[in-house]
């Protein structure tokens, strides 16, 4: 195992990232958004990288978390910790339902089912505009308060999100390093063999969906409080697509690759959008480059650099004497 893949190294890199971002970014909102989407992409990585499930339904759970926070905070006076917990539970319940139905098929049929569910939930949110606000979304979503002080300052809310992010990332690391996580890897590599050994593969997949949905909805609730709106766009198919692109760019072989993918995508989007209105064309070229030359994403590039710098000197081979 590469030393960078060890749990302690992953957590150390996350803490370092959280500490370094305020030093290099002038926008607290952008830095907070990077952490939120890094959390969401890590949850997607649990499905794609560890279970082998290419799901286009992550936007469903992100949007549900957004609407849960928007409805609870704009219409009822519910404490933010309870709102976040409720959003996570609602996301887990929805993901369990979507996963239970989708994993009945495999391959392209599974992908099409998750895509169909994504469109279904989008049109439900659009239709029930009295609850979701329709195209306008839910406006005026407040930020949390600590000791009676509302975290309206960008960097104060960044600190709040950073604490949540480190805690969630640590939980995901423990999940992937547990027996449950190792079983997910076995299912990804050979589901038939894992089932023959006696593992209930469908149950494990549903549990992976539930965990991923809970974390994604949690991130959606944080995002609603960041921008002050619960928009319809958060539950669109394009949100699922964006999360998957971040996952692929960062690399699905490591959870910290999710942080790299989210940061790279959002920073590139922020930079290119000010230079050229059609910056998505350039992003497409970046994705093609990653697909052709960086199959392990940015994390694979980091591992190569580590091996080149810190590789150990090998002792010369001892010649074998001929008889």
Describe the structure.
This protein has a domain at 20-236. The protein is globular. By secondary structure, it is mainly α. The chain contains 14 helices and four strands. Helix 4 (80-102) crosses helix 5 (108-127), helix 7 (154-177) packs across helix 8 and helix 8 (179-189) packs across helix 9. The longest helix is centred in the middle third of the chain and has 27 residues, at 201-227. It is 73% helix and 2% strand. The model is unreliable at 313-318 (pLDDT under 50). The two termini are 38 Å apart. A hairpin with a 2-residue loop joins strand 2 and strand 3 (149-150).
Key attributes of the depicted protein:
323 residues, mainly alpha, two-stranded antiparallel sheet, two-stranded antiparallel ribbon, 14 helices, 4 strands, globular
In short:
This protein is mainly alpha-helical and 323 residues long.
Beta strand %: under 5%
Q: Strand sequence of the main sheet, in spatial order?
A: 1-4
Largest sheet descriptor: 2 strands, antiparallel
Global structural class: mainly alpha
Total number of strands? 4
Low-confidence segments, ≥5 residues, pLDDT <50? 313-318
User: Which range best describes the helical content: under 10%, 10-25%, 25-40%, 40-55%, 55-70% or over 70%?
Assistant: over 70%
Write the H/E string, N to C. Answer: HHHHHHEEEHHHHEHHHH
The coarse silhouette is globular
Question: What is the overall number of helices?
Answer: 14
Q: For the CA atoms, what is the radius of gyration? A: 21 Å
Mean pLDDT: 87
End-to-end CA span: 38 Å
InterPro entries: ABC_transp_permease, LivM-like
Keywords: Cell membrane, Membrane, Transmembrane, Transmembrane helix
Subcellular location: Cell membrane
Organism: Paracoccus methylovorus
């Amino acid at each position: 195992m590469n030393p960078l893949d060890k749990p302690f190294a992953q957590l150390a890199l996350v803490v370092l990232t959280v500490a370094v971002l305020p030093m290099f970014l002038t926008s607290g909102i952008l830095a907070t958004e990077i952490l939120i989407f890094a959390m969401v992409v890590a949850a997607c990585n649990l499905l794609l990288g560890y279970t082998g499930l290419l799901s286009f339904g992550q936007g469903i759970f992100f949007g549900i978390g957004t609407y849960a926070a928007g409805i609870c905070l704009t219409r009822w006076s519910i404490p933010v910790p309870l709102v976040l917990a409720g959003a996570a539970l609602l996301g887990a319940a929805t993901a369990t339902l979507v996963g239970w139905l989708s994993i009945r098929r495999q391959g392209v049929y599974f992908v099409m089912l998750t895509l169909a569910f994504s469109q279904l939930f989008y049109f439900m949110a659009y239709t029930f505009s009295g609850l979701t606000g329709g195209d306008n979304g839910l406006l005026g979503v407040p930020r949390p308060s600590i000791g009676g002080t509302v975290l309206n300052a960008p960097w104060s809310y960044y600190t709040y999100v950073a604490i949540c992010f480190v805690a969630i990332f640590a939980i995901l690391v423990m999940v992937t390093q547990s027996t449950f996580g190792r079983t997910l890897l076995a299912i990804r590599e050979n589901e038939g063999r894992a089932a023959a050994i006696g593992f209930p593969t469908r149950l494990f997949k549903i549990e992976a969906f539930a965990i991923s949905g809970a974390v994604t909805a949690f991130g959606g609730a944080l995002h609603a409080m960041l921008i002050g709106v619960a928009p319809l766009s958060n539950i669109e198919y394009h949100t699922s697509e964006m999360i998957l692109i971040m996952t692929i760019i960062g690399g699905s072989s490591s959870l910290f690759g999710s942080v790299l993918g989210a940061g790279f995508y959002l920073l590139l989007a922020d930079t290119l959008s000010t230079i050229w209105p059609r910056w998505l064309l350039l992003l497409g070229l970046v994705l093609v480059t990653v697909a052709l030359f960086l199959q392990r994403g940015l994390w694979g590039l980091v591992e190569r650099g580590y091996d080149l710098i810190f590789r150990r000197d090998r002792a010369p081979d001892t010649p074998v004497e001929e008889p």
